[in-house]
Protein 1
Amino acid sequence: MLLQYLVTCGKSTEEQNVRRRPEGAHAGMQFNVHTLSCSGFRWGILMQRWIALFRGINVGGNNILPMAALTGHLEALKLQRVRTYIQSGNVVFDSTSRSMGNLARRISRRIEEHHGFRPQIFFLSAQELQAAVSGNPFPEAVSDPKTLHFAFLSETPVAPDIKALDDAKVSTEKYVITKRVFYLHAPDGIGRSKLAMNAEKYLGVVTTGRNYRTVQKLLEMVSEG
């Protein structure tokens, strides 16, 4: 199961444990907490490794946040081994935080104080990212990674508009919806893709997208010692 937080809706660990459903389905905008197996002890403190995906930063000249500045903010919040990848807001870090909802709010608040906007953040573990990669329904597309896109979902779509999705796609495009990822293979690119542009609206949930090259790089980063 993918773990995400939107900084505007994150619940505390205690709240999430109480509200968690047997199959991990979400009611409204509630999120679950999972423990990482890629954790270790550092200075006698249990460190856990996370991937943070920032939604909608450095896009079209809006919500500008240089990665050097983001790294500085995260280190100021006592996060360890902070590493970023390209400018779209992809971060791997270690933390002793026991409440990712609280951490998300702290990150969001600090960025708003310094940059004037509150980013939405998705957190996921190495295992969850690996599961997303292993579940890729278009293995033939990995040789051209810019054509393969993973849209991570804030929650499982309850009533996606399949007709609208089908009407939006062109003949060369293929998509698959799972509980936590919307996979899109767009051989002609997504720059003018109506499907890519409208997928979030038709799915009815908040998403943040990354191409396969970025997903694979983050998987490599999170696996480093």
Protein 2
Amino acid sequence: MNNTFTIEQKTLLSLLAAMQPICNKRTTLDITEYILFHITPRELVLKATDLEISLRSTTPLDGIDLDGAKFLVSGRRVFELIKEMDGEIEFTVGESQLTLKSRGVDLSLNIRSAEDFPPFPERIENLLQLEASFMLSLLGKVAFLIPQNNSNTALNGMLLELGKEEMALVVTDGHCLARAQTSEYHLDKDCTWLLPRRAVLELKKILESGEAQQVFLGTCSGQLVFSGPSFNFFTKLLADPFPEYKTVMEKDQFRSARLVRSEAVTSERNGPTRSLVGKRQRQTCFAIWRIGSCSRWFPAN
């Protein structure tokens, strides 16, 4: 049986790059530093996990007679080597080593048995299909506010709400709150999931690559899954309850005002600000007061 396969350097490098934040995170198991390679007659499957988030990626292979071959390679080491190579790379799988050849360069890596790799989630139940660019825009509106090491664990994540009328992403750091919602997507039942900060940021990176036009949202073994044509991204969920925030969103006592975004951004860049709504010369205005003596008024509709 032929024990070799070939793949383009750029193709493999992009897959390995997406897995570096996962396989480089220190965990209680050193095996999470490895990436699992699974070669089939039609595709190469890569898997990485840090026991909190996991990523499965695939890329097509042609003319391969290496059905079912599995092995583990150091994720950081193989990434560094592939980054220095170019063009088409030939891989030869041995009992304890993996040989890489490309344009006169021969390199070898030690491999481990795939049996040592942690169990990977299987049997995904897809719930909803989303437009990737739209999901990315929603994440961009709230992800920046997720705290990193808040004493309240529930605040170190993003609440994803899906119901009969809308989908919403909610984040708070205990002082500010951001909520992005849309009526474009909904489910027949109400569901909520609390995603860890790392999962949100890694998902955002995957969507920013632009490889997927559509993504599926699903569940698998108690985890939340985002799937594209060539990837499955799994994340465990935070168990702590997210703070009750809906009373903050009640607007019965609020007076609304609109302002020109460019003017507000310009004033914000001048320094720390505080704001209030008031009336001036019989015209409702929105005032942004800079801490100090400077103030600016903007017409409001």
Protein 3
Amino acid sequence: MASSSSPLLKGIGALVLLLVAVSLVFTIVSMVVSFVSWFLSLLFSLAVLGLIGYGIYWMAGKLLGGDDGRATLDDTSFDVGSTGRQTGTSRREPESQGISDPVDNLREQYANGQISESEFERELERELGTRSLEREVGMRDDEEYERN
């Protein structure tokens, strides 16, 4: 009888081993899925909190009406110095000292309807042409210096 039960025991043992292996694989897969789910949940939560924080920052800025101190392209003029490099300077500083820029004056006159679009363009070209000539002369001197 021992010889007849031996193949049966081997089959049951193989079946139990197969069930343990399948259980182990499912356990590992469920752990990976759980970790990915946790990570995505964390990212989503941080994104939502970041959006809420930015919304509060934006609302506070609008309600308080303060200047956030960032310079825009309209607030910055570029000047070519003796080195031939552009250096940015803020236009806010001269205005606070009572010095006004002719280009800014033209913009204000055009915005207020005091001059027409064609007058604005003509005066702007004249003003920028004067500036570009001054810069061009300075750049020629720099180029000659670099050649020698």
Protein 4
Amino acid sequence: MSETGQPTRFENRIATSNAGWKPIGWTVAPEPDGANFIAVGRDLSDVREREAELEAAQDALRQSQKMEAMGQLTGGVAHDFNNLLTPIIGSLDMLMRRGVGSERERRMWTARCNRPKERRPWCSVCLPLPDASRSSQARSM
């Protein structure tokens, strides 16, 4: 530093009166004569606290992003599962409309399809088909 004449920075810690430690940032510069140095110290406690808060906020953001990704993944899996069930339920509904199956099987399927909608979100194809005459009247209006 005395050769280049440039200031130097470093950090250390000093003991406090309550038996703790405080981080101090130092800037040391040589005087023009090169024989003496001028040093200025700065308490870095607030800076370290802000850095810790920033790191905690970044960790919370990463956790939130992980949860969002999990939500999207599970939503996608549920959507794919629903797409797999739709033709199965549609086929069962078609068989029911044709009267295929034993009386017991028809009663079980009818009971499942007649539940309130909120208890059977998987069964959208069980709803009665719209009347063709009503839909053609609605189009003509």
